Amino acid sequence: MALSFTCYASLITKSQDQLNYSKYNGVEKVKSIIKKTVIPSVSCSPVESLQKGNWVKLICGASFEDLVDIRNLSLVYTLAGVDCIDCAAEASVVNAVNEGIEAARALVPIRRPWVMISVNDDEDLHFRKAEFDPDDCPQDCTRPCEKVCPANAILQKGGVLAERCYGCGRCLPVCPYDKIRAITYVRDVTATAELLERDDVDAIEIHTSGREPSVFKELWSGLGNSTTNLKLIAVSFPDLRDSTISAMKAMYAIMEANIQCFNLWQLDGRPMSGDIGRGATRNAIAFARKLASAGDKPKGFLQLAGGTNDHTVEGLKKEGLFQMTTVHEASRYETIPSSLHSPNALIAGVAFGGYARKIVGRVLSSVHSHHGLARVEDFPEQLLQAIIESLALVGTVKCYNIQKPST
Ligand code: SF4
Ligand code: SF4
């Protein structure tokens, strides 16, 4: 059954009387509407999504640590049917993601997305924070840093709110007085290994430049047996042009003996830029085209990231890469239980970060600005708006049959 956008829209545009129902009735209304909706991915396991080519991952951000936003984003995107939620490798962040997932499952008995933590083997754009001393800023500065920040991480008249800064770097070049510094960091391998032992962490992603096998090996060795019970191991890396396949082979050779689950290559096109617009997704698609046609790459699903947005699937379709399968790919998984055998898609799916956060963040920030540290499910009107936004994006990959409400 198709999900009708109009049913959500009509609820939202109901009279104010109906919107003013009690919180309890509001949540019950949300429950009843969602229950009537059949979202195809809900019955589809994350592994099946990878194989079919309709895997969707929400990237909360390797450095984003605003716990209220993370919880609410996780709730909304769980309801939209994502397969995985990727977050910072911090216990409090992992708790917030799992709380959001369980809050969603309390509304609807939906299958649980995998929880992935992101770490780095060396300096990496995703693992940095901007910082400046507001007392050191000229009084008459027009504060372009504040305007350019996509995360609302720069406080009015203040400095950077560290938990909201995810290191996109856009504020750095716009400061006319060169007051902003970028502080980079590497996640602690021992703390990461402890997180991986938790029952509510299913996957890890290693961000790497791909150029230094020795630092990759050091991190991998440091993780020891902590990866044994994982469901997925992902490696996120940029397009290294002619060295891409050799770098993948070197990394796979390091991991191979200890991989006891699926593995995935995250093709990081243009990092942290999906919210900028249509063109941002081109690099990820070009990267995917190159790897999909490479015959000698090591085993592992391919997934796009970096600049992904609501134009990504359209671009993949133009390249003939969207949900196309080859028998050759299926044969690469001969060690996997027969129940999971099926031809694999050339491209397993898409991860959405900045764009996903932006479209739902608009709704969440209206809740927070009026109600402080709020649970989005206590505000049915906003929850439904957030669900509409997230379904429209996730639906580009999952092929939900959604009719947009007429304006
Ligand atoms: S613009 Fe980017 S790097 Fe600068 S404070 Fe905002 S999120 Fe952080
Ligand atoms: S643009 Fe530079 S000088 Fe101006 S408020 Fe931002 S950090 Fe300070």
TrEMBL record:
The keyword Iron-sulfur is annotated on this UniProt entry: yes
Pfam families hit by this protein: LdpA_C, LdpA_Fe-S-bd
PROSITE patterns named in the record: 4FE4S_FER_1, 4FE4S_FER_2
Coiled coil feature spans: none
InterPro entries on file: 4Fe4S_Fe-S-bd, 4Fe4S_Fe_S_CS, Fe-S-bd_prot_LdpA_C, LdpA_Fe-S-bd, PSI_iron-sulfur_center
Top-rank lineage group of the source organism: Eukaryota
One Gene Ontology molecular-function label: metal ion binding
Annotated ranges, domain 4Fe-4S ferredoxin-type: 128-154, 156-185
Keyword Metal-binding: yes
Record key words, sorted: 4Fe-4S, Iron, Iron-sulfur, Metal-binding
Entry-linked PANTHER family: PHOTOSYSTEM I IRON-SULFUR CENTER (PTHR24960:SF79), PHOTOSYSTEM I IRON-SULFUR CENTER-RELATED (PTHR24960)
The name this protein goes by in its record: 4Fe-4S ferredoxin-type domain-containing protein
